[in-house]
Each structure stands twice: as structure tokens, then as C-alpha cells.
Amino acid sequence: MSSAPAVAASSLWVDEDGVRQPSGDVHAWTPGTNQTLCGLALSRSRLGRFQHVSWADAVWIEQTTDHGLHLCPKCSAATTPRSQRGRRWARVRPRP
Questions:
Q1: Which terminus in the chain has less CB density within 10 A, N or C?
Q2: Cα separation of 45 and 81, whole Å?
Q3: Helix, strand, coil tally for the chain in percent (to 5)
Q4: What is the pLDDT of residues 30-89, one digit of tens each?
Q5: Is the separation of the CB atoms in 50 and 9 below 8 Å?
Q6: Contacts 24+ apart (CB under 8 A), 40-44
Q7: Are residues 5 and 28 in contact, defined by beta-carbon separation less than 8 angstroms?
Q8: 6-14 and 20-29 as β-strands: parallel, antiparallel, unpaired?
Q9: Three-class SS of residue 34?
Q10: Nearest to 71 by CA among 81, 85, 60
């Protein structure tokens, strides 16, 4: 199994080279499993698997093109390292 998450999406579009690309609701998926990182079952949710598209590529496609991608916020949180999430917790006024 690969450690880098691939993409599962609700619909697709075909680019000018004839390669299937994700569209619609996009979720992070670990190949070899039957569920996304947010817990949706691929078969019950009728999500298409895009093993050739990494999650980082889906984020880049969502930011640069307007093909109607909606990245799952739970999957985004699961794939973002804790150090990059921002808003680190800190106690403002500790008790005496």
C-alpha cells in the first residue's frame, strides 16, 4: 500500500490528453482500502477512484482551475500535517 493518499470523486472530466480527472466532491483515499480518510465507504457513496491523481494534485487543480472541485474539509484536515494547520493551542492566562 502507498502512504500518499490518492483521490476519490463523485464525478469526472477528461482533459485535453484524454486522461480522467476528478470533479465534484473530492475525497482523499488510501489505495487498497474501501473508504476515504473521512470515513465514507467508496462503494456506498458511489465515488470513482482516481489512483493516478494524488491528493496534492487535487489541491493544485482546485486552486488553479475552475472545474468544480470541492475538497472535503475532513480529508483536508487529515492530510495536512499538524505543524502546518495553524492556530496552535496555547493557554492565555494560566491558573495560579
A1: C
A2: 27
A3: 25, 35, 40
A4: 988 899 999 999 889 899 999 999 998 888 888 887 777 899 999 988 888 877 777 777
A5: yes
A6: 42/8
A7: yes
A8: antiparallel
A9: coil
A10: 60
The Cα–Cα gap between 28 and 75 comes to 6
pLDDT at 93 > cutoff 60: yes
Q: With CA atoms as reference, report the closest residue to 53 among 25, 26, 81, 17.
A: 26
The CA angle 35-36-39, to the nearest 5 degrees, is 80
Q: Which residue has the cell 467508496?
A: 42
What's the residue count for the chain?
96
Residue type, position 84, single letter: Q
| Contact in structure between 19 and 51 (CB atoms under 8 Å) | no
